[in-house]
Amino acid sequence: MDGFLLPMDFTTTLGLVAGTLTTAAYLPQVLKTWKSKSADGISWSMLVILCSGVMLWLLYGVYEHDLPVICANVVTLMLSTLILGLKIRYRYPVRG
Amino acid sequence: MDGFLLPMDFTTTLGLVAGTLTTAAYLPQVLKTWKSKSADGISWSMLVILCSGVMLWLLYGVYEHDLPVICANVVTLMLSTLILGLKIRYRYPVRG
């Protein structure tokens, strides 16, 4: 049945779309945090655990030579680190 | 070199730890949102795009018969949907 009902690259396309969505999801959060100048509603633990996990996914992608996993996690790591950075910046503003 | 410097199941373990972290990350966010009775700091778009993406990852796992992907994404879907549900509940409280 496989390959008859579904085109051969259906699951690959599905994975790519899924990866694009779970990566792109953090972009509106970056914009919201940037505009509101606050990330108080976002949990510190969530951001730290998320960044660590994404870093390990990236390492996993490197070991597995899996380019889609590497690309998705490089972008997710950038966005989640950016949210964490903004949270630190707005929580502990530099005075001077 | 592969399999000589690294034990054979190193990357699998790495993937499992990474998946556990990126899944568990949403738990402190659920608790924070529940305790503060507000999810105003979390972007609607982020939650909706994230839930859609995780749903597609789950479908990907089902097509690929990939149990770790299925398990991780079932839990992530539950937690992200819970945050979305709490955001809706606190944003539009039922009056009566």
TrEMBL record, chains A, B:
GO cellular component: membrane
Pfam families: PQ-loop
Annotated compartments: Membrane
Transmembrane segments: 12-31, 43-61, 67-86
Alphabetized UniProt keyword annotations: Membrane, Sugar transport, Transmembrane, Transmembrane helix, Transport
GO MF assignments: sugar transmembrane transporter activity
This protein's record includes keyword Transmembrane: yes
Highest taxon above the source species: Bacteria
Membrane topology: Multi-pass membrane protein
Main location: membrane
Protein name (record): Sugar transporter SemiSWEET
Species assigned in the record: Halomicronema hongdechloris C2206
